[in-house]
């Protein structure tokens, strides 16, 4: 397996660690492919009862890899293909009969939040910070965020989080139902192992049925594909161009696009 993702297994728990700490675990093609492969192995392995996804270093995932994105965001068709690869990997988390937990060890932004939202729920380090932030750059979610945020926090809180582009600390994220448990930053990994191992001690068939029965019906392929189409359309527009340029130049963006 690629070294951009590490896998450790004990006590029925598989810990998948995004391992690009120098890039704040930003999602590139290699990492997304490795994640998809690891999830498939975990699903097929009877010894794995719970899957936990976390990040190495000070970030869970800061979103899309900017070097890769600089190429694909110039072309809507290429960007759409990138997002379809995300959809495949993220949807595998929901399709698995095994609980999948996102353990937010640090900064979790944009595509990183969308990855976390694809899990069954999130736990966080006390030092974690979480936000959608697409609006800050003239972009919209493309990894399922506009669909799964509604399920996580309700439509009004989802709109607030998307429209404002705010970044929340762990307690703020818990207050709106985005995060369900917070563990101390100093003992985070050990606490997550213990937490996941407790869930892994439950009946595997019972967990699978509970996951299937509680699956959110509002999240559909049509909805996810509509989001991808919108993201691919807007990414080549003037506001996205300005937002990405402003980010690269470390300045505030000035958006000028108007509704047709």
Structural commentary:
The structure is a single chain. The radius of gyration is 18 Å and the shape is globular. It has a single domain, classed as 2-enoyl-CoA Hydratase, Chain A, domain 1 (Alpha-Beta Complex). The longest helix is centred in the N-terminal third of the chain and has 20 residues. The protein is built from eleven helices and ten strands. It starts with a strand and ends in an 11-residue tail after the last helix. Strand 1 and strand 2 form a beta hairpin. The protein has a six-stranded mixed beta sheet with strand order 1-2-3-5-7-10, sandwiched between helices. The chain is an alpha/beta fold.
In short:
It contains 11 helices and 10 strands. It has helices spanning 29-44, 66-72, 76-95, 111-117, 145-153, 155-164, 170-175, 188-200, 204-213, 221-234, 238-249, and strands at 5-10, 13-18, 50-55, 59-61, 100-104, 107-109, 121-125, 129-131, 167-169, 181-183. The strands form 2 sheets. Strands 1-2-3-5-7-10 form a 6-stranded mixed beta sheet, with helices on both faces. It has a 4-stranded mixed beta sheet with strand order 4-6-8-9.
